[in-house]
Each structure stands twice: as C-alpha cells, then as structure tokens.
Amino acid sequence: MAKKQKILESATKLFMQEGYGRVSMDQVTRESLVSKATVYAHFKNKNELFVASLTYYQELHQIKAPIFKSKAAKNLDDLYFSVRDYSQQAYDYYNTDAIVNLYRILIAEINEFPELFEMFFGNHTGITKTLSDFLGLLPEKIIITKIIVIFWLVRYWIWFVVQPFGLSS
C-alpha cells in the first residue's frame, strides 16, 4: 500500500473518531506506521491533511449529495413530483451512518474551517430558484398554495437537515 494512502486511511480514522482538535500529527504518524517527515512530505500541515481526509472519506463511502433536478414546472403536479423526488434523495442521503458521522465532524469543526461549509454542504440554490420561479408564475388567487409549499419546505428543512444533528429546539 502506498504511504500516502496509509496516511489518509489512518488520519481519516482518527479524525472521524476524535475530531480535528484531538488528533495530532504524531498520532497520525504512529497510526500509519510512517515517519513524520513522510507525513509532511505528502501534507504540508494538519489542516491540509484534515481536508484531504474528509474528501477521502466521501470517496470511500461514495457520498454524493442529492441534486434537485430542475424541470420547468408547468403545474403543481410537476412541482410536487420534483420536490418529492428530491426529498426522497435527501432522506436517503441524510439517513446513512457515513453522512451522520461526516456531518458530525463538519459541524464540530465549522468555526475552525468555514470553507468546509461551502465545500461539503454545497450550494443548494437549485431547488430554491426553481420553486421561486414557479411560485412567481402562479395566479394570485392561489396564494394559499404558495404558503403551503413554503410551510412544507420549512418542515422539510427542519425534519431532514436540522433535526438529525440536534440543532432544533
């Protein structure tokens, strides 16, 4: 096994178990059975190793965030099926041990690594733009539909995204 691979495997295991703050480069060196010079030859510092470890973890567990497939919604049924399909993808995505472990570490380290938010949580504007465009086309007489859709989206966000991480009240 290549040394860089051994370092990544060891560091990933340590970071996922202990978090960034409690892992030292010495621990990574001991766990991967390589010299400290070898670790630093592949990763210039602990931050770089941490980000590489999180990326490796995603690849190892084949983690891919759900994607909202934007269709031109012509009626409420189109919108419903698009949101439903996205919601099922999101539910399946957030309900895996690999994601819960990854997000637990990311949330714990977000203050130290604000760039991780964009890198791992990504840009989820696709669903927002599609819904906004569609709702803007609806006649005023069905404004209640807009309110119901917005309410449903807020509930979805709390149920699938916030609640699993203990962030809701």
Automatic annotation (TrEMBL):
Domain of life of the organism encoding this protein: Bacteria
The protein's UniProt keywords, in alphabetical order, are: DNA-binding, Membrane, Repressor, Transcription, Transcription regulation, Transmembrane, Transmembrane helix
Annotated region of DNA binding: 24-43
Q: Which Pfam families match?
A: TetR_N
Give the transmembrane region(s): 143-162
Q: Does the keyword ATP-binding apply?
A: no
| Key word Kinase present | no
GO terms assigned for molecular function: DNA-binding transcription factor activity; transcription cis-regulatory region binding
Q: Which residue range or ranges hold the HTH tetR-type domain? A: 1-61
State the InterPro entries in the record.
Answer: DNA-bd_HTH_TetR-type_CS, Homeodomain-like_sf, HTH-type_TetR-like_transc_reg, HTH_TetR
| UniProt cross-references to PANTHER family, sorted A to Z | HTH-TYPE TRANSCRIPTIONAL DUAL REGULATOR CECR, HTH-TYPE TRANSCRIPTIONAL REGULATOR RUTR
Q: Write down what this protein is called.
A: HTH tetR-type domain-containing protein
Which organism encodes this protein? Answer: Aquella oligotrophica
